[in-house]
Design brief:
This protein is of the alpha/beta class and 541 residues long. The chain folds into 3 domains: 4-23 and 143-237, Phosphohistidine domain (Glucose Oxidase, domain 1, 3-Layer(bba) Sandwich); 36-137, PtsI, HPr-binding domain (Enzyme I, Chain A, domain 2); 249-526, TIM Barrel, CATH 3.20.20. 43% of the residues lie in helices and 13% in strands. It contains 17 helices and 16 strands. The protein has helices spanning 36-59, 63-77, 79-90, 95-111, 116-137, 158-163, 182-190, 224-248, 301-315, 351-356, 358-371, 387-406, 423-427, 441-449, 467-483, 497-505, 518-526, and strands spanning 4-7, 9-12, 15-22, 150-153, 171-174, 194-196, 208-212, 217-220, 261-266, 283-286, 320-323, 377-381, 415-420, 436-439, 486-489, 510-513. The strands form 2 sheets. Strands 1-8-7-3-4-5-6-2 form an 8-stranded mixed β-sheet. Strand 13 (415-420), helix 13 (423-427) and strand 14 form a beta-alpha-beta unit. 44% of the residues are buried. It binds phosphoenolpyruvate and magnesium ion.
C-alpha cells in the first residue's frame, strides 16, 4: 500500500522510525450493583487505588513529571471532583457511568476555555477519569509496548507517558493534543520526539511510521525513497547534535571574535542536576511560578530561600537572576490569580498582581534577600510598565532587607532589574532606574504585534525579530549603554538559531536560553560575523 504523509505540529523535536501502536487503556464491561451505597464504595475504592498508582509513579518521577502527577493527586484528593458522580450514583446511576459522565463534563469545560493552557488541562482530567475507570472495571495495569513504538492516539495521558519505557526509543504521534500540554512538556524534557494535531486519519492507519518531529511530519508505510531521505536527514541531525554538544562546552564568540554571554533559563532547580556550570556565564532567568504550583499551597519563606540558595550555590559565583512571581496571563495559579479576567494577558499579572498581594510579594522578597548572601543573586521584576512601579518595588525590597537585618537574619540588598516586555517600558527604557534590563521577547512580541502568544495561527505576526521588535531591542540596548547597565534577552528567541544573528546585530551581547539549546545557540553565535551587515529584510522568510 502506498505511503501516507500526515502533517501536524512539532511538540518535541527529534526523529524516529518504528511500528505504529495505538494506545488504548483496556476497558471491560462492568456489572453494576443495584445498591447505590455499594456503587459509591466501589467508586471510592477505585479512586483510592488510582491514588496509590499515582503515588508509585511519583516515587520514580523527576521534578517536572512529579509536578504533573502532584497536580493529578491534588485533583483526585479534592472532594469536589467526585461530588457530581456521587450525586448521580445516589440517584441510581452506576459508578462507572456516573464517574465517566461527571469527569467528561468537567474535561469538556476545560476544553472550551479560550486559553490554550486550560484546554491542555483537559487531557489531565481524562487521564484521571480513565485511571479510575480501569480500577472500577478491573483492567488496570502497566502499559506494555514493543521497543521503539510510535505511540499513536487522540491524546496521551501524562501518567501513561510516564509509565512507558522510553529508553528503548520511540516517539509520539497524536491526532489531537497541543504543544503546551503536560505531555508535550514531558516529551521535550525527555527527548522523546512528538508531533501533535495530525488529524483523525491516523486512527485508521497501521504499520511502520517515520516521525520527523523537527518538521511536524509523520509518514506511514514509507517507501524506499522516503526511508533513504529520512536516514540522511537523521544522520545530519545526529552530526549537528554532536557538533552542538562540543560547542556547548566552549565560551561563545562571534566569527569576528566578539564575546557573547550565554545564560540559562530555568523553572526548576532540578533542571540543573547533572549540568556543568561551565556551560554558561550564569543564569539569566529563574521563573519562580513552578514553586507556587502543584497543589502544595503557597511556598513559605524558608522553602523559597532554600530553593534560591540551591541555585546560587550551583552557579558557583556566576550571576543568577531570579524573577519575582509572574503569575497570571498564561501562568494562572489557583487561589492567587484573578478568575474571570476578560483578557488575562492585559490583566492583573506579574508585578501588578504582586502589588495586590503584598504578603505573598514580601515573603518572596525576604527569601531572595536572604539567598543573596550566598552569591551573586539579582532580582528581576516582570511586566513593569511605569518607572514608579520599579521605585515601589525597590522600596519594598529595602524594607525586607531592613526588617531581616533588625531581626538578626543575614540578608543583602540585591541588584534590582526589570524585564522589558511591555511596549511602554521598551520605548522609555532609559527612564527606568533599573540595575539591569532583560528583554522578554515572548511577551514583548505579542504586545507589539497585538497577536497573542497562545494563538498558533498568529505566530508569524508575533515574530520576535520582525522590524518593529528589532528597533525596540536596539533602543533598549542603547538605553542600557547610556545608563551604563547590563542588558540581556531571556525570551525564547535567545535560544533560536534563526533569530540569533538578528539579535546580535541589534546590539545584544548577552542571551539567555533553556539549557538544551545552549550548544546550537553557541554554533549560531560562532556563525555570525558582526563586520558584515545582514542580508535580506529583517524578518524571516
Ligand atoms: C518573556 O516574556 O519573554 C519571558 C521570558 O517571560 P515568560 O515567557 O515567562 O512570560
Ligand atoms: Mg514574559
Amino acid at each position: 500500500m502506498a505511503e501516507l504523509r500526515l502533517e501536524g505540529r512539532s511538540a518535541a523535536p527529534g526523529m524516529a522510525l518504528g511500528e505504529l501502536v495505538r494506545l488504548r487503556r483496556a476497558t471491560a464491561a462492568r456489572t453494576a450493583s443495584d445498591d447505590p451505597a455499594q456503587e459509591a464504595r466501589a467508586l471510592r475504592a477505585a479512586m483510592a487505588a488510582a491514588l496509590a498508582d499515582l503515588a508509585a509513579l511519583l516515587a520514580g518521577a523527576d521534578a517536572e513529571g512529579g509536578a504533573i502527577l502532584e497536580f493529578q493527586v491534588a485533583m483526585l484528593e479534592d472532594d469536589l471532583l467526585a461530588a457530581p458522580a456521587l450525586g448521580a450514583i445516589a440517584a441510581g446511576r452506576s459508578a462507572h457511568e456516573a464517574w465517566s459522565e461527571a469527569l467528561e463534563a468537567e474535561a469538556a469545560g476545560y476544553e472550551s476555555a479560550d486559553d490554550e493552557y486550560f484546554r491542555a488541562r483537559a487531557a489531565d482530567l481524562r487521564d484521571i477519569r480513565d485511571r479510575v475507570l480501569a480500577h472500577l472495571c478491573g483492567t488496570a495495569g502497566a502499559v506494555q509496548l514493543p521497543a521503539g513504538a510510535i505511540v499513536a492516539g487522540e491524546d496521551l495521558a501524562p501518567s501513561d507517558f510516564l509509565s512507558i519505557d522510553w529508553s528503548r526509543g520511540g516517539a509520539l504521534a497524536l491526532m489531537g493534543g497541543s504543544p503546551t500540554s503536560h505531555v508535550a512538556m514531558l516529551a521535550r524534557s525527555r527527548g522523546v520526539p512528538a508531533v501533535v494535531g495530525l488529524g483523525p486519519m491516523l486512527a485508521e492507519l497501521s504499520g511502520e511510521a517515520l516521525v520527523d518531529a523537527f518538521r511536524g511530519v509523520v509518514v506511514v508505510r514509507p517507501g524506499a525513497e522516503t526511508r533513504r531521505a529520512f536516514e540522511q536527514t537523521a544522520q545530519r541531525r545526529r552530526e549537528a547534535d554532536n557538533r552542538a554538544a562540543a560547542a556547548a562546552r566552549t565560551p561563545a564568540a562571534t566569527a569576528d571574535g566578539t564575546a557573547v554571554r550565554v545564560l540559562l533559563n530555568i523553572a526548576d532547580p532540578a533542571e540543573l542536576d547533572g549540568l556543568d556550570p561551565a556551560l554558561c556565564d550564569g543564569i539569566g532567568l529563574v521563573r519562580t511560578e513552578l514553586l507556587f504550583h502543584a497543589g502544595r499551597g503557597l511556598p513559605d519563606e524558608d522553602t523559597q530561600y532554600l530553593t534560591y540558595r540551591r541555585i546560587v550555590e550551583w552557579a558557583a559565583g556566576r550571576p543568577v537572576t531570579v524573577r519575582t512571581l509572574d503569575a497570571g496571563g498564561d501562568k494562572p495559579i489557583d487561589g492567587l490569580t484573578l478568575d474571570a479576567e476578560t483578557n488575562p494577558f492585559l490583566g492583573v499579572r506579574g508585578l501588578r498582581l504582586c502589588f495586590q498581594r503584598p504578603a505573598v510579594f514580601m515573603t518572596q522578597l525576604r527569601a531572595l534577600a536572604r539567598a543573596a548572601v550566598h552569591g551573586e543573586l539579582k532580582v528581576m521584576l516582570p511586566m513593569v510598565t511605569l518607572p514608579r512601579e520599579l521605585a515601589q518595588a525597590r522600596a519594598l525590597l529595602g524594607e525586607a532587607v531592613a526588617s531581616l537585618g533588625s531581626a538578626g537574619v543575614a540578608a543583602r540588598m540585591p541588584a534590582l532589574g526589570i524585564m522589558v516586555e511591555v511596549p511602554a517600558c521598551a520605548v522609555a527604557a532609559d527612564l527606568f532606574d533599573a540595575d539591569f534590563y532583560s528583554i522578554g521577547s515572548n511577551d514583548l512580541a505579542q504586545y507589539v504585534a497585538a497577536a497573542g502568544r497562545d494563538v498558533p495561527a498568529l505566530a508569524d505576526l508575533a515574530d520576535p525579530v520582525q522590524p518593529a521588535m528589532l528597533r525596540l531591542i536596539a533602543g533598549v540596548v542603547a538605553a542600557a549603554r547610556m545608563r551604563g547597565v547590563e542588558v540581556s534577552l531571556c525570551g525564547d528567541a535567545g535560544g533560536e538559531p534563526a533569530a540569533i544573528s538578528w539579535l546580535l546585530h541589534a546590539g545584544l551581547r548577552s542571551l539567555s536560553m533553556a539549557p538544551p539549546l545552549v550548544g546550537r545557540a553557541k554554533l549560531a553565535i560562532a556563525a555570525c560575523d558582526l563586520r558584515r551587515p545582514l542580508e535580506g529584510p529583517p524578518w524571516r522568510p
